[in-house]
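Would you mind writing out a protein's amino acid sequence and the numbers that encode its backbone to help me picture the idea?
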Amino acid sequence: MNRVVLVGNLTKDPELTTTGSGVSLCRFAIAVNRNFTSASGERDADFFNIVAWRNLADNCGKFLAKGKKVAVSGRIENRTVDSGDGNKRYYTDIIADDVEFLSPRGEGGEPMANRVPVTELKPVDSDELPF
């Protein structure tokens, strides 16, 4: 079984592109903190390259940005690329089946135009509710 679930923060803005046949592709990287601290007392992180396709790619490209927290579930895929100098380069990607956006809307510099301050909310009479 090839299954992985990661929760982390984007290390840079996602890159949304399309293939030659018009399929959306979004690449981004996340940093995932380890559950323990190093001998110096610092918490290390691991970095993972994520690839999303089609509608998921479109949504990631539209709503994600550097620093946003996400949960990614998918599978690990290894690939080999022949470099121009005759050497092979090996890459490991996480192919996302699902990406959940965990950062609240507006966090990270996005405008929060549709939010109403709590002080402006008015109580609702229970007799007006349809249930």
Observations:
- The two ends are 45 Å apart (CA to CA).
- The chain has a mean pLDDT of 88.
- The beta strands are 4-10, 15-18, 24-37, 43-53, 69-82, 88-101.
- The first strand starts at residue 4 and ends at 10.
